[in-house]
Amino acid sequence: MEKAVFLDKDGTLIKDVPYNVDPARVKFYPDVFAALRLLQKRGYKLIIVSNQSGIAKRYFTVDDLEIALSELRDQLKSEHIFIDEIYYCPHGDITDEPLCNCRKPLPGMLLRAAEEHHIDLSQSWMIGDILNDVAAGRAAGCKTILVDRTGEERILHRIADPKFTPDFIVDDFHEINQIIALKKRHYEGFSIK
C-alpha cells in the first residue's frame, strides 16, 4: 500500500482568489515548495483534493478549470514537484443541490483516490486551510494538519464539532515536514497549537 499527502488547493497551496480559473492568477505561497519536495522524496504521493462549486454555479466550465490546473502543475514541475493526481468536486454548496459524497467535509475524493492509487489512509495526511478539509481527512481515516495563515480557523475549531478538530495546527508549511516525520515517533515534542 502507498501513503499520500492530500492537499487542498485554494488557500493552502495557492492564494485564494474565489472562483479563479485565470492561469495568470495562480500564485503559490512560497513556503510550499520545499515542503512538497521533501514529502515527495519521503515517498508520499501528492494528491490535490478541491471543492469546485463554480462549475455547478456556471461561473466557469470544466475546460476552464483544467486550464488553471495545467498551469498549477506546470508551476510545480518547474520546482521539481510532481502531483500524482488532482480530484475536484464539481457540485454546488449544500444549499444549491442535494449533498454529493465528494464535497468536503465529506471524504469521497480521498476514498476514491485511496481505491484508485492503493493508498493506506491510516498512513496518510490531509492538509488544508479550513475545517472542512480537516473533517474530510478525519472521516477518511487520515491524520490532519490545518494550515491557518490568518488565525481565523484556529478560533473556529475551538467551538466546532470534534470531527473538525485537526491533529496539528500550523501557521505555514515550514513545520509540516517535521510534524509528518515525527509522527512516526509518536508526535515527540509536538502538540496541537
UniProtKB/TrEMBL annotation:
One GO molecular-function entry: metal ion binding
Protein name: D,D-heptose 1,7-bisphosphate phosphatase
Compartmental location: Cytoplasm
Record-linked InterPro entries: HAD-like_sf, HAD-SF_hydro_IIIA, HAD_sf, Heptose_bisP_phosphatase, Histidinol-phos
Any single GO CC term annotated in Swiss-Prot or TrEMBL for this entry: cytoplasm
Biological process according to GO: carbohydrate metabolic process
Family: Belongs to the GmhB family.
Domain of life: Bacteria
Coiled coil regions in record: none
Keywords linked to the UniProt accession: Carbohydrate metabolism, Cytoplasm, Hydrolase, Metal-binding
Species per Swiss-Prot/TrEMBL record: Sphingobacterium thalpophilum
Pfam families named in the record: Hydrolase_like
NCBIfam families on file: HAD-SF-IIIA (TIGR01662), Histidinol-ppas (TIGR01656)
